[in-house]
Amino acid sequence: MKKKIGLFVLAIVIIGAAKFYYDVNLNYNFKAISEGKVYKSGVIPPDELEDYITKHNIKSVIDLRFPGTDDLVNNPEIPEQLIVEKETIEKIGNVNYYNVGSRQVPDQPTVDKFLKIMDDSTNYPVLIHCHHGEGRAPLFSAIYRMEYEDIPNEEARDETRVLVKWSSFDDGKPKGEFVKNYKKRSSK
């Protein structure tokens, strides 16, 4: 019996590791936030970007990276990589590229710039991405959900991760507190 339990636990660990590897390394943490409307991801390599844009009919890409955010979560955001992405999107055509560089917790001018883009219905469907697709992209996705889908703050925070507990969105963590305390605009 112990052997069967051990094998079951091992199988779960292997399946979980395979899913994590796929999500991070093969699917770039791509996820629908609001199917057909808003998606989030990490950096998608330029040679694969057009496939994602075409498959999901993406009209706008919001890149949350900017040089100089090589911080504790290791975001090696190199200017050349941002330029290559912008040029790739320009070659695809009929897709808007917006650089809304943000720190891990955005300031109000950055949030305002993001909301101005999201207020324009011609920008949809939108892909929001950061370097890994695990910090800023889920945070801005939570802002989107709270602002445009009237999702309560706590629910938006819960949806940022599979496990909110022990993540950067946990109680007391800067991103978690930002989402919990976010104040929606009174009018759009």
Describe this structure in words.
The structure is a single chain. The protein is built from 7 helices and 5 strands, in the order αββαβαβαβααα. By secondary structure, the chain is an alpha/beta fold. It has one domain: Protein-Tyrosine Phosphatase, Chain A (Alpha-Beta Complex), CATH 3.90.190.10. A 5-stranded mixed sheet has the order 1-2-5-3-4, with helices on both faces. A hairpin with a 3-residue loop joins β1 and β2 (38-41). α2 (46-55) crosses α3.
Walk me through the topology:
Blueprint: H1 2-26, E1 31-34, E2 38-41, H2 46-55, E3 60-63, H3 79-92, E4 96-99, H4 108-119, E5 126-129, H5 136-148, H6 153-158, H7 174-181
Parallel strand pairs: 2-5, 3-4, 3-5
Antiparallel strand pairs: 1-2
Helix pairs in contact: 2-3
Mean pLDDT: 85
What portion of the residues fall into strands of 2 or more residues?
Answer: 5-15%
Number of helices: 7
Return Rg in Å: 18 Å
Overall outline: globular
Question: Structural class from helices and strands?
Answer: alpha/beta
Strand order of the largest sheet: 1-2-5-3-4
CATH fold annotation = Protein-Tyrosine Phosphatase, Chain A
Low-pLDDT windows of residues = none
**Fourth CATH level, the homologous superfamily:** Protein tyrosine phosphatase superfamily
CATH class: Alpha Beta
The CATH level-2 architecture is identified as Alpha-Beta Complex
Oligomer type: single chain
Q: Write the H/E string, N to C.
A: HEEHEHEHEHHH
State the total count of DSSP E strands.
5
Distance between the termini: 59 Å
